[in-house]
Amino acid sequence: MMTRVHSTVSPDESLPSSSGGKRQDVLTVWKKSLLLNCSGFTVFNSRGELVFRVDNYCNDNREEIVLMDAAGKPLLTMRKKKLSFGDQWQLFEGEPKETRGSPKPIYCVKKQSNILKTPKNLVHIFDGSCKNFQFVVHGSYTKRSCQVIDASGRVVAETKMKETVCGVNYTDVFQLIVQPDFDAATAMATVLLLDRMFSSRWSPIF
Fold this sequence. Notes:
- The protein has one helix at residues 184-198; strands at 25-30, 41-44, 50-54, 64-69, 74-80, 88-93, 107-111, 121-127, 133-140, 145-150, 155-163, 169-178.
- The chain is mostly beta strands.
């Protein structure tokens, strides 16, 4: 039987937002796949409904991650950029095949190359050309305390440690809070790349 980890916050109790009175999406992220013997993520909304899942996050697939909806439909695909300097990933809509003339990426995500110089910056997110800045991610992923900030300095999404009923914090279960004018799937894709770049399983702890 699956342990209950989703948020107990009702839709009416969701955090208020400054964006036209609309409510933020408060998602509960569980670092566990629905499939046996496979690593992944499972994401619930405030009503306890499954909204996102990742089931291919395994050791033998280190250069591609597919974010799916509850029914298993691919929403976004993250692929590590080949022949690039540093840790760079491209974000595609759906699950396009890697062929000539394939769809262009919608975002390019670059890991901060000099953490000692700018310790708060984890990654920079550019448009699909990898030239025009869109967002920066501040914080510490190992503490599950990160903010996605747009070019105007506004926080559009953030992660927070989720406190269990016993008062104990676990890094495998945390909250993802998304502003109503920011795409929740893109926010979750950012979390997946942060996990790939900064989780102790893949790289030294930051």
